[in-house]
Amino acid sequence: MHSIWEIRQFHRTPDVVVIGAGIVGLFTALFHKRRFPHHHVVVVERGPFPSGASMKNAGFACFGSPSELLEDEDHEGTDAMLARVEARWNGLRELRTELGDVAIGYEPTGGHEIYPEHSPLYTCVAERFDALNATLSPILGPEPFKWANDAIASNGLQGIGHMVRTDLEGPIDTGKLMSRLLQKVLSEGVLIRSNSNVVRIEDGPEQVVILLADGTTLTTAWAVVCTNGYTTDLLPELPVVPARGQVLLTAPIDGLKLRGTFHYDAGFYYFRDFAGGVLVGGGRNLDIVGERTMLEQTTPVIQNALEELLRTVILPDRNFTVAQRWSGIMCVGPSRAPIVERHRERVVTAVRLGGMGVAIGIRVARQAAALIGE
Ligand SMILES: Cc1cc2nc3c(=O)[nH]c(=O)nc-3n(C[C@H](O)[C@H](O)[C@H](O)COP(=O)(O)OP(=O)(O)OC[C@H]3O[C@@H](n4cnc5c(N)ncnc54)[C@H](O)[C@@H]3O)c2cc1C
Fold first, then answer.
1. Cβ of residue 56 lying under 6 Å from some atom of ligand 1
2. Which CATH class is domain 110-168+241-332?
3. Per-residue DSSP letter, 238
4. By alpha-carbon position, which residue is closest to atom 16 of ligand 1?
5. Is 283's C-beta closer than 6 angstroms to any atom of ligand 1?
6. pTM given for the model
7. Among 3.30.310.50, 3.30.950.10, 3.30.565.10, 3.50.50.60, what is the CATH number of 4-56+176-239+335-371?
8. What percent of the chain has a predicted confidence (pLDDT) above 70?
């Protein structure tokens, strides 16, 4: 039994329902609302708050380390590699402009890639370093990457022979980013319906019916699926696979020298400073099959590897305690490109962000919003 006020405010028939309140879903709702201010736009989220990868990530505002970019170039060609760098770089600039550096906790402390003394990866990067910089310079400006071997010791790292630095990358505070985005979305008139788990989407030529786990249905003109790593349940026909990423954070460490974001072992590991401690993640390569899961858990094999990296490379000869461990679910597939399409007549998808959602999320959302009809 709803009052007239509930019916007029919260139970109006939505023009658009966005499923998933991650960075992509929230920006999609925002951009559609700006385009059609009179539309009633509702974001349905199964958690009490946004609770996907957008709240679990490591907070790297990054466009790719040298080894990652060279690998992309080898597999997909120079043009595809450059297109992705451009998307990430412009996405980060849009994100920082839209939300503001202070609001997202952006720190201009730089991004780094590190290599052990005799690593073949170093040899490969060193041979192609100048050519890579030249290829990237039309997008990123002259010499985006520089060798910074003299800063290895000042960051307290051990067993590392070579380091590359870019001033164009840096860490953000993921929680602040999502809080600011939520505030913005609400203040511009989007309704967020939390604790609403979508179990089925039934679409026809005129409307879409969205069924929630509590038995409620929402009827709308358009649905946008922004569920990333959790998409298989809703749209099993899409070529998407969940990919878990595990992380740990140490308690604050007196006199921590580490500053900025760091990529290691061809991107299989990454770490940064946060709140006086070290956040370290990765190690999916140790159990690729086991990590193709939507279960938000940590496993000893990967957590032990992260701790070993702390002991041997990041915090040698320092005692540390682990303050927090968590995992988040990314979305991958046969291609690294996101799936942004009008999947059915009235259902748009914006999923498969891989490990790049901080950078490209806002642009993927803009593309998705442009696919929604009036
Ligand atoms: C450990 C880790 C580290 C990462 N580090 C970085 C990084 O440093 N830099 C970077 O650029 N990217 C990073 N990423 C990737 C980045 O976080 C993602 O690409 C991005 O957050 C994806 O955003 P999204 O909005 O598409 O998905 P999500 O944030 O996962 O949002 C999907 C939302 O949909 C909701 N949902 C799911 N199913 C349903 C349903 N049936 N009904 C209702 N709601 C539903 C979920 O609860 C969730 O809130 C990392 C990811 C992880 C896991």
1. yes
2. alpha beta
3. S
4. 357
5. no
6. 0.97
7. 3.50.50.60
8. 100
